[in-house]
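Re: weekly structure request thread

Next one in the queue (218 aa):
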Amino acid sequence: MRRGAPLRDFRHGTFSVAALLYDRQAKATTIKEALAKWEEKNGQKASEAKEVKLYGQIPPVERMDESLSTLVNCEKLSLSTNCIERIANLNSLKNLRILSLGRNNIKTLNGLEAVADTLEELWISYNFIEKLRGIRVMKKLKVLYMSNNLVKDWAEFVRLAELPLLEDLVFVGNPLQEKYASDQKNNWIEEATKRVPKLKKLDGILVIKQEEDEEGAN
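Done, posted below.
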């Protein structure tokens, strides 16, 4: 993305807060700078913190750079509402359980393998992800919020069935979901849970399995 260009989600006609306030001449905020501001505000060393919030930086963060390696104790990291294009430099975050990357410019899930052994929740809505290639390494993932991305094929959606612990999925606003919501309103949850049968909640709705219905009737 060209520096200074406004970040617009043309599918939804919305701008991120960071982009609206992004001075065209401003240099992007680095992770090091964002961490320094966080430490000043919170009176704590980021390297010792369990939760670090770097969302909505002005100017926005564009790169997940090597300064993230200092967050060795971090369990929850928020980098939402920035202009990040690529997931990177998570190798040192050995305790990370929750990663928030919503409202960025991310196109692939490459880079998540670095936290595959610990990550339980990934919040990555309002990005530009079309392919779910590589997600199968996330064996601990229980919660995936990825609404308003660009997934359009069942072939990609079924990759989620390779996640043994996934139980809570938000997928609304992807082209695949929108197609079923408009054409076959009653079938989206049925079709989706047929392909990812371990889900307990889909788009905020509790999933009731057919066998549970049958057991209740007996």
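Confidence is low (pLDDT under 50) at residues 1-15, 212-218. The two ends are 58 Å apart (CA to CA).
Next request, please.
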